[in-house]
Specification:
The chain is an alpha+beta fold. It has four domains: about 110 residues, no CATH class; about 160 residues, no CATH class; about 180 residues, no CATH class; about 90 residues, no CATH class. The chain is built from six helices and 37 strands. The strands form twelve sheets. Strands 7, 8, 11, 12, 13, 30, 31, 32 and 33 form a nine-stranded antiparallel sheet that branches. A hairpin with a 4-residue loop joins strand 31 and strand 32. About 15% of the residues have low confidence.
Amino acid sequence: MMRSLFSGVAGLKTHQIKMDVIGNNIANVNTVAYKSQSITFAELMYQTTQNASGPNAETGRAGVNAKQIGLGVQSAAISTAISTQGSSQNTGNAFDLRISGDAFFVVNGGSGNKFTRDGSFYVDAAGNLAMSSNGYNVMGWQVDDNGDIVQDNVSKLQILKAENMTSAPQVTSRANMTGIIDKMDPQVMGDGKIVNLQIYDNLGYSYTARFLVQSTDDEGMYTVTLDDLRDANNDSVIKDTTKKDGTVVKAKYDANIFTGTGFEKKDPPTYTNPIARAKTYTLSDRWKVNPNGTLVSKADDTVTLAPGSDEYAAAWGYSGGWEQFSNLFSYERDANGEITKDADGNPTYNRLGANLANMIDAANGTLKVDGYYAQDGKVLKLSYDQISGALQGIDALKNDLKNFFLNVEPLEAGADNPFSMNSAQGDDQGAPGIAVYMDGTTNVNNEKKSTIGAISGDAEGFGTGWAVGTMTGVSIQNDGKIFGAYDNGQTKLLGQIAFAKFANATGLEKVGDNLYSATLNSGEFDGIGVDVTADGGKVSTGILEMSNVDLSSEFTELITTQRGFQANSRIITVSDTLLEELVNLKR
């Protein structure tokens, strides 16, 4: 009689626990990223009143099963539906994040890392990304000096720290001229078509380079002239300027335009008798200079390079020495690698080889400058094909070169004036300055209107340059990378949210505040974390994951739990009645 009474009590206790679980689920029906729980029951234990016996062949009696009486029920397991995704709620807040997949955010409140699916974040007064509900810092990976993510031990993401509020300036290194030069354009035929190019120096200050494009007496030939360079106040920085009050603003910089490979602008050198210090190198198919100034080559691989002096190369502003200088000059070759020849059977020079021939005065061995540099550093010649209208080239290198360099240097350079308007990386041709590409220009009829213009950056947009930028917004990509947007059009990687994954996520322990902690049965967190996209997951911005509680299921469980509780209470009531009848036997 007593066993049934205690079985009923055990049933009441377990159903009460089930009611607690159901009540907690329903209470958290609107909790962000809450994962519902469920409980399962198990038999408590059994009292065996008679053991089982096997069949007896001698007596012919069959076996008898054991006689056992159950002693009630117990809670077997309380499971969390970790892998069941909750529904989505749009919030429009850029810092509200929803995880698709099995990963967890890593957060830290000063007492070790915890884990959560709650992506309702905000930025605190110190610029840290944190949980809105409890202020736990969101953990992630930092950016190195090269702007790349370093997947190391997680640390708090201070995305709005002082250095992230602005974007560093970038010097302009490339520019692009495109459009039509119409030879009948009155401006081209007259004082010149004005082409302005906005560029930035290394400190982010803007300047406007003013070019003039004019026709010459030769058909299809034009000049491009650097007319002026002006600052943001429209004052010239390469010319002395007299203001209205009579004061004179002295020029600050020297500016020139030139063509070439690995050269700097220098005054035209006079280097008499350069053949005096010849050296012999073993360089295949390189030029040598005869005393009469012509270029020849021996048939074998040993050629005499004259003048062969590094001073000769240095006179041209080339710092690599004569051997490298001479490597710029060679024969023209066809598709099979064979040296091409002219109509008279003589080997043909490539553009640089032909140009070197023009450098030497055959009469006295004196260097000449015409044909390689613009004589005054301000004017270059453009040559256009009169059949196709396409640019043939610039200056004496017209059959190959289709870009020039704008070089700007302070008149008083030094430690106290580190100003630079030239790319620190240099151009792909090794020249200092801003490479201006002109292969997008054409010389065709456009009803007497030229459309030639210039923009910073090449055709792919590289080398544009920009001023200092102020942060205008923050965005988070689906891999957790955080980018800052700036009013100079640039973006900067600020960090990346790291995520945790566990071998058995259902083994995590709930610790309140929408947080979980790792247990022995969940698997350990390695301190580094993973990229959420590594196995196909992602994060979505402006969306929160809601609770995965199913109210219809919970209300159904309420009914069955209520009936179970009522039935167990009846066991106690009936057992009590029977005990009362037993006591009444003594009357």
